[in-house]
Every structure is written in structure tokens, then in C-alpha cells.
Design a protein that fits this description.
Blueprint lengths: L2 E5 L3 H13 L3 E5 L2 H10 L6 E6 L4 H10 L8 E6 L5 H6 L6 E6 L3 H16 L2
Parallel strand pairs: 1-2, 1-3, 3-4, 4-5
């Protein structure tokens, strides 16, 4: 299937994401912070097909800037997991930051996560 980089600082949510994505047949690279995630991503045998990260996180903006500037990495789609109080669906739809950025509210429905991951990976495969 796909290689997915998960950047999640909450241990329980990290475990849930890893379990769900592994059950779907994906290869997972897990990191608790963006700095370590960058090192793991660059050390991996190939680039990830998708990045899932909770937001906000210290160092995330720098990680995204580096990703965008790294040849072949700028178009990797990112799903941002946002806490309900920080999630405004209307705002994210009105002002998309990037064509490859997607949003999912925390707490999330596992089935909705699976559908969103499948949809994003299918679209990325068509590019």
C-alpha cells in the first residue's frame, strides 16, 4: 500500500493511528515531533506518500517549509489533526493554505480517517 509518516505527540493517539493504518496495510513511520520526523523521513528508503500530523506542534512550521523546499517532497499531501476548539471547517474551506493540505478534527472517527486517507492517496496516485 502506501508509506505514511505520522507526527503525533500524544502517545495514545499515536498508537491508534499506527494500529489503524497498519491494519489497512500501510507502512508507517512514527515520530513524536517534527524534528525527529524530518530525520526519519530523510533516512527512509523512499519518500512517504502521505503525512498525518497533529497541529499545532513546536517545529511544525519549519518542518513544512523544509518539506516544501525539498525536491520531490513538496507535493506530499498532509492531513492536519486539529483539536475541536481550533478546528473551523468553514475557515479551512474558505481559505485553503495549500492544495495538498487536508484537515480532520480531533477526536476523529476512525472510519472517516480511513476514508480520507484512501481518498487522498487515490488522488495523489492520479497526479
Amino acid at each position: 500500500m502506501a508509506t505514511i509518516l505520522v507526527i503525533e505527540d500524544d502517545g495514545e493517539r499515536q498508537h491508534i493511528l499506527q494500529a489503524v493504518l497498519l491494519c489497512q496495510g500501510h507502512e508507517i513511520i512514527v515520530s513524536a515531533d517534527p524534528g525527529t520526523a524530518w530525520v526519519k523521513m530523510m533516512a527512509a528508503s523512499g519518500r512517504p506518500d502521505l503525512i498525518i500530523c497533529s497541529s499545532p506542534q513546536r517545529g511544525l512550521a519549519a518542518f513544512l517549509q523544509r518539506k516544501h523546499g525539498e525536491k520531490g517532497y513538496g507535493r506530499i499531501p498532509v492531513i492536519f489533526l486539529l483539536k475541536n476548539e481550533k478546528f473551523n471547517q468553514e475557515e479551512t474551506e474558505r481559505e485553503p493554505k495549500h492544495n495538498y493540505w487536508f484537515y480532520l478534527a480531533i477526536p476523529f472517527n476512525v472510519q472517516h480517517l480511513i476514508c480520507q486517507v484512501d481518498e487522498i492517496l487515490a488522488k495523489a496516485a492520479c497526479r
